[in-house]
Amino acid sequence: MNSDSEQVCPAAIERSPLRATVVGCGTIGAAIGAALASRGLNVTLYDNDPVCREALAGNPPLFAEPDMAQAVLAARTAMRLRVVDHLERQPFPTHYIVCTPTPVTTTGEFDASAIDSAVAAIIDVAQPDDAIFIRSTVPIGTTRRLAARTESRGLDLRLAFTPDRSIGGCTFADQFSVPQLIGGVDGRAAARAVALFAPLGQVIDLGGAEAAEAAKLFANTWRATMFAAANALAMVCETQGLDVHAIFAATGANYPRFSPHRPGPVGGACLPKDVRLLAASTPPEAGALLHGVSQSETQLIALVATALDAHLATRKAPARIAIAGFAFKGQPAVDDARGSAALALAEGLRARWPDAVLVGWDATMSASHIEAAALIPQASLHAAVNGADLAVFGNNHPVLAQTDLDGLALVAAPGALFYDLYGVTVPYRPTLPNGVRHHIFGRGEPGERQR
Ligand SMILES: NC(=O)c1ccc[n+]([C@@H]2O[C@H](COP(=O)([O-])OP(=O)(O)OC[C@H]3O[C@@H](n4cnc5c(N)ncnc54)[C@H](O)[C@@H]3O)[C@@H](O)[C@H]2O)c1
After folding, report:
1. In the structure, what pLDDT confidence band is assigned to residue 417 with cuts at 50, 70 and 90?
2. Angstrom distance (rounded) from CA 166 to CA 171
3. In contact, 171 and 31? CB cutoff 8 Å
4. 10-207 and 214-451 share one CATH topology?
5. How far does the centroid of ligand 1 lie from the alpha carbon of residue 188, in Å?
C-alpha cells in the first residue's frame, strides 16, 4: 500500500524501462531517488521509519535542500516517484539501491545491522534479474559478502557498489555534478549499474566492487586527513601563542606547495566515521595514520574544552553559556547536528558545570532541534548572547561572519569570552567592548607559549 494518497498509474510505470527502489531514504536515499526520478526513471522509495516516509510523502516534502523538495514534488506529480510502507515483489526487473546507515561502534567496529537487515528484506522480495546496488559507505569486501548471501538463497542477482559522494547541503545537486563511481561484483552487475546511473552524468567503472569501496573510503579519508592536518597545526599554534591563520595566509602567498584547509572541527555523520570504516578494513599495524586522524577531532574538542573551562572558572556561578551555531557546518548550510563539535562541547560543559544555563541559537536548526539538544532555544543570536559569560561560535554559517561583534559584546556579560571555532568572526581583536575577550581557534594567546 502506498503511504501517500497518490495512486501510481500502471501505464506510467510501464513507460520507463528502468526502475529503482531505494531502501533507506534519509539524506542520500532521498537524493538519489529524487535525482533518478527527475531523469525519467520510475522510482519507489522505502524507509522503515514512518516519520521519514511521512516527510517524503508530505505536501510539500520536508527537505532542507529546496531543489530536492521541488524534484520530489515534481516526480510525484508526474507519477514517477512513490513512497511505500513495505517492500513487495515487483512485476518488472528492479534495481534496489541500499542507502541505510553504516555506523561504527564505540570500539571502532563496523555495525552492519542496518545494511544486513535491508538486504535481507530485499532478498525476500527479489527475483532473478533484479540488481542490488550498495550506496551506503561500507568497509572493503562488504558488497561481495552481501552477494554471497543472495547466492546462498539461490538468487542470481547483480550486486554492485555505487557510492554517494555528495557533501551535506548539496546532496541533490551533487548527484549530477559528481561522477558516479561503480564497481560490480562481476561484469554483468557493473553493466547494469552503468545503465542505471548514466542518466545522471559521468559514470566511472572501477573494475570491481572492492576498488569502488576503497575509492569512496579513500576520498573521504583523504579529506578528513587534510582537515586533521590543518587542525594539528592549529593546535600547535594554540600551545605556542602563534596565529595559524596568519601563518597559513602568509605562507600560501605565491607558494603553490602549501595550500592547507582552514582549521576548525570536521563534524558530520560521514568523514570521521568513514576513516574508522577504512581502519576497520586494514590491519592495525598499517593503520596508525588512520587512527591518528580518527583521534584528531576528540583532541581538538578536549583542547577547546580546557580553554572554556579555564574561562568559566573565573566567572560567578551560575554562568550563562550561549552556543551560537550547532549544525555541524554552516557552509553549505545544513540542518544536521550529527557529529557537531559545538554539541559535543555543550554536552561536556553541562556535565562539568551543572549549574550553568545553556542556551542555543542556530541559523538553520529549529527550536525543537535546539530543545532536543537540551539547550534553551533563543529567537536570535543577539538574544542568545545577551548576558552570556561565554559564547561559542560553533559553525561557519555566513550569518555568524556578518555579525556586529561589537554590538554583541555590548550585550554580553562584562568580561565574557567569545570563542570562535572556525575563524568566522574576523577581524580578530583580543579585546572587544565591555571587556569581552575574543578567541579564534588556532590563534594562540601570547603568554601561552610552552617550551
Ligand atoms: N549524509 C551524507 O551526506 C552522505 C554522503 C555520502 C555517503 N553517505 C553514506 O550514506 C549512508 C546513509 O547515510 P544518510 O546520511 O543518508 O543516513 P540517514 O540516517 O539520513 O538515512 C538512513 C535511512 O535509512 C533508514 N533505514 C535504516 N535501516 C533501514 C532498513 N533496514 N530498511 C529501510 N530503511 C532503513 C533510516 O530510517 C534512515 O531514514 C551511510 O553509509 C553514509 O555514510 C552519506
Report:
1. very high
2. 5
3. yes
4. yes
5. 26
Q: Report domain extents, the chain.
A: 10-207, 214-451
In this structure, which residue's CA is closest to atom 28 in ligand 1? 114
Confidence of residue 252 (pLDDT cuts 50, 70, 90): confident
CA distance 208 to 218: 15
In testing the pocket of ligand 1, which one of 32, 62, 100, 143 has its CB within 8 Å of the most ligand atoms? 100
Spatial distance between the Cα atoms of 8 and 57, rounded to a whole number of angstroms:
13
CATH class of 10-207: alpha beta
Question: What is the pLDDT averaged over residues 112-130?
Answer: 95
Residue of minimum CA distance from atom 3 in ligand 1? 168
Q: Is the pLDDT of residue 67 over 80?
A: yes
In tens, the pLDDT along 150-168 reads 988 888 899 999 999 999 8
Per-residue model confidence (pLDDT) at position 149: 93
User: Got the DSSP string for 306-323?
Assistant: HHHHHHHTTSPSSPEEEE
Q: How far is the CA of 36 from the centre of ligand 1 (A)?
A: 17
Fold classified for 214-451: Rossmann fold (3.40.50)
- Closest residue to atom 1 of ligand 1, CA basis: 27
